Amino acid sequence: MTGHASSGSEADSIWQVLVGMVWETRGEWRRKVSDATGLPFSRIRVLWRLLDAPTTLKQLADMTGSDAPATTVAVNDLEDRGLVERHPHPDNRRAKLVSLTPAGRQLVDLVRRTVRDDAPPAVQQLSKTDLAHLRRILERINRHER
Question: What are the strands of the beta sheet with 84-88, ordered from one edge?
Fold first, then answer.
């Protein structure tokens, strides 16, 4: 064996386990985020996507997996709350860039400071060796996906 998975079905099976584990733990965390902010999680997801740089509505829709009308509704709501603002795009007169306001950045920082996102007990109980192997594998996958 050359070190590669012998079949796609094994890789697919492992992937489904990983996705299932993450998916099952997100509901409670999302509720905590919504409780801390008073906003639906879909709005917080938009704010997170704006942390690094202003983004167009189309890019936001792609990044959040939403359609353009839903993204527009979310941005309108966040703008009404003073959490984002729109500016003309420097290279495209038809597009607007959406960016965080200081209040929007403060809200994301509040979530980061107050809502814990601990690993599930099964992950916390892994040995240091297993965690090191898992980190190495996940970092390799992450580098490959970029």
Answer: 55-56, 96-100, 84-88
